[in-house]
Amino acid sequence: AEHKPPPAMVDKIKTTARTKAEGLLLTPAMGAVINYMPSVVLRSREPNKYATDRKGLLMIGGPGLGKSIAAQFMAALGKIEIAAATDAARIFATEGEAAFYEFTRALRKQETIIDDLGAEREVMSFGNSSPMADWLQDRYSAWQIGGPVTHIVTNLSPEQIGKKYGPRVLDRVQEFTTPTPLAGKSLRINKPQPQE
């Protein structure tokens, strides 16, 4: 039976993540990732031994808040796959439905971060449904029966996710992820300029 990991172990994982993040901007997104890392590490290191957070992160916020950098850090540190929604949609649009489903099936058994959900070009399958909505529903179905965790990075609000992919997809996304709203001004705009 799974049991709670010792607090000292959780603290050590967070400290290690914080140390490895030195030199990167400690944005709220990075803070959320560092706090979540014990679940990622314990899931990969000792599956089924410790009770971990089985919900993924749903990082929501405007552009330029460091969400994608935090996701890349999490992917590298936690050996998690990362797939851009824009790449998935491009595969669907240029190579077809079979190539898209091959791409998503290859990730089905792996903890995955879907980056930039909502930034992809609008594409529809022959059944007039969004392939991204199908992918999210497939990830949810796998998660329901003990499959891998899915993390999502998006500029869309929950309401916008519902409008773009449908209320059913939004309901499932909200069940298998923990919304992590991030606020602030774009770091790209506020970046200090080098002095001459």
What would a concise description of this structure say?
The chain is an alpha/beta fold and 196 residues long. The model has no long low-confidence stretch (mean pLDDT 88). 35% of the residues are buried.
Helix-strand blueprint:
Layout (H helix, E strand, L loop, with lengths): L6 H14 L7 H18 L10 E5 L6 H12 L2 E4 H11 L1 H10 L5 E6 L13 H14 L5 E5 L3 H8 L1 H10 E5 L15
Parallel strand pairs: 1-4, 1-5, 2-3, 3-4
Description:
- The longest helix has 18 residues, at 28-45.
- Helix 2 (28-45) runs parallel beside helix 3, helix 4 runs antiparallel to helix 5 and helix 7 packs across helix 8.
- The chain has a 5-stranded parallel β-sheet with strand order 2-3-4-1-5, with helices on both faces.
- It is globular and about 50 Å long.
- The termini are far apart.
- Helix content is 49%, strand content 13%.
- The protein has 196 residues and is of the alpha/beta class.
- The protein has helices at residues 7-20, 28-45, 67-78, 85-95, 97-106, 131-144, 158-165, 167-176, and strands at residues 56-60, 81-84, 112-117, 150-154, 177-181.
- It has 8 helices and 5 strands; from the N terminus they run ααβαβααβαβααβ.
- Strand 3 (112-117), helix 6 (131-144) and strand 4 form a beta-alpha-beta unit.
Which characteristics define this entry?
single chain; 196 residues; alpha/beta; 8 helices
- Could you say which structural class the secondary elements and strand pairing correspond to? alpha/beta
Q: What's the total helix number? A: 8
**Secondary-structure element sequence?**
HHEHEHHEHEHHE
Report the mean per-residue pLDDT as an integer.
Answer: 88
Q: What is the strand arrangement across the widest sheet?
A: 2-3-4-1-5
Distance between the termini: 61 Å
Low-confidence stretches: none
